[in-house]
Amino acid sequence: MSERAAPFHCPYCGDEDLRPSETPSERGTGAAWECRSCNRAFRLKFLGLLAQGLAPSPSDGSAGGAP
Ligand SMILES: [Zn+2]
Q1: For residue range 4-44, what is the model confidence (pLDDT) as tens digits?
Q2: Does residue 38 lie within any of the structural domains?
Q3: How many angstroms does the Cα of residue 6 sit away from the middle of ligand 1?
Q4: Domains contained in the chain, number
Q5: CA of 9 relative to ligand 1 center, distance in Å
Q6: Residue 53 domain-assigned?
Q7: CA of 23 to the centre of ligand 1 (A)
Q8: Residue 55, domain member (yes or no)
Q9: Range of the domain at 18
């Protein structure tokens, strides 16, 4: 598994003009990215695997059936 995850869109403004942050970051804290559109810097961090996997979420009990 690769440790680097490249975001495709800025989580704040949705722009695609992202670049890796030049600021030195500590190891293990995640990759830092900068958005050139809204001038924000953010960090991506892998938190871990989901315990429940991809199991479908239980419905609220309203079995409508309509798509
Ligand atoms: Zn942005």
Answers
A1: 668 899 999 999 999 998 766 556 577 899 999 999 999 98
A2: yes
A3: 14
A4: 1
A5: 8
A6: no
A7: 17
A8: no
A9: 1-44
